[in-house]
Predict the structure of NADPH-dependent FMN reductase-like domain-containing protein.
Amino acid sequence: MKLVALVGTNASYSYNRKLLWYMKKRFGQLAQIDVLEISDLPLFSEDTLDRPDSVLFLSNKIAEADGLIISTPEYDHSITAALKSVLEWLSWGDEHPLTKKPIMIVGASLGNMGTVFAQENLRQILNSPGIDAFVLPGNQFLLGRASQSFSERGDLTEEKTIHWLEHCFNNFVGFVKVINPAKEKQPQFIDDVSEQWWIEDASLGLPFEDDADTGSTEDLDDGTSLFA
């Protein structure tokens, strides 16, 4: 099984990075885990005509993987701005590598509650139109007091924490094995204009744009906004 693990911050030092490298080492016999960084990805902008090479590289790696692990810090009850920008890149354009991709969320923070708010925020984003990922339900791994949780070698030290991480990861492996074959058996629906009658009835006469490409339905063709 090939997995990609995404460090959800552009900070030079991160306990979330340490957590993913520990998982790579700990679960090496169950899966090949490729830890990837987001620090070299530019800020998302719809004005960009072509996706940068760094975005294309990440998109291709995720598309080729059986599943994705995201380790997120928590900044102001939310994910980092850098991670949000990456998710916007990955939900923009013709290729959507996160769609129907099995995803596991983990996180580490200095506080007692771990990254509980950031993880809920991330789940909400991954469930949005244009992403539509398959996120592992439950199995929340919330590593609090991260500065006290690792040895000098970068290993987790608390046995109960290790046991819970193993439990969550084993469930994710099973989740991936169920989800990926099931995707191939799903019926393909015809995307026909005649089948979109509900869009015309629900639009109240306002121009309709598909938010799957940009994550936004606010911009009109002339550059104005419905909500300016």
The radius of gyration is 19 Å.
